[in-house]
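Re: weekly structure request thread

Next one in the queue (334 aa):
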Amino acid sequence: MIDYPRNSQQTIPESSVKIVGLGGAGSNMLDRVALDGIEGAELLSLNTDVRTLNGTVAGEKIQLGRNLTKGLGTGGDPELGEKAILEAEDEIRDSLRDRQIVFVCVGLGGGSGSGAAPVLVRLAREAGAFVVVFATMPFAFEGRRRRTQAEESLNQLAVLSNALVTFDNGRMGELVLPKQGVHEAFSAADRMISDSITAVGRLVLRPGLINVGLDELISALKTTRSRCLFGSGLGRGENRAQSALKAALNSPLLDRGSLLEDATTVLVHICGGDDMTLYEVELLMQGLTKYIPEDAHLLFGAATDQQMKDALSVTIISALPEDRLQAIPFVGEI
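Done, posted below.
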């Protein structure tokens, strides 16, 4: 085992991170994050639907449109969703005050998500937070109207947020076996988003051997009107470094690694237990360099965490302009 130095490093206080679930889909994502046991971050649920709001496990809850919708949903109307969140603007500002990072989980296409998400992101940015949005897009069979509403909201989020991670529900079948049920598919999608949030949280919250901070994260995501590329993988056993890299590259959010071919800046963070070796780090990085351009700016960080035990994780973050994402065809599993 390599003896690593244990110098204390500047990290972001855990109380400065807030995860917000907006609307019904956002609440489901938030509940998954809570179920997976993320540490340190505060959980906030926002919804017009009181029944859904009361059912979430978030420690903090704010009802939207208390006077406007009177505890009911928005009926798929984004204008109503926007008006509803503006009713609770002061409460939300108080909740987001002094937070350095805000993760927003939202499903686009409906009223609460599409109408309220841009307002929420604007409020978080005005509070001085670095805002990362995890947004799901509707299935094709949900109709043109929901898709149009989702895309209009997405365009606003691309401008307002610091980082935008999108997942199209139409690709949910890639996460499960063909014979598995609908519930398993939605659970897999929520779990993938939860893993993404956990990985980014570990990256900026935990002190590292080679530290990665918000400035590096911002650098990796700094392109005009871009979408975030994200992959996170966990490996165990003898070949855990290779397993972790394969799992990260196989993420639908990286299109099986193909999206990294045109990346100009790539952030890589590796985390393992106290038994993580330099050889494993080198092996993983050698495998990753096959997928990124030689002239890409590579930002690297590594950390040890006793809670990882015998596991090793890798997180890959980059960004591409929207027009490049739309031009890339789907690539099968590597």
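Residues 14-201 form a domain with the Rossmann fold fold (CATH 3.40.50.1440). Residues 1-10, 327-333 have pLDDT under 50 and may be disordered.
Next request, please.
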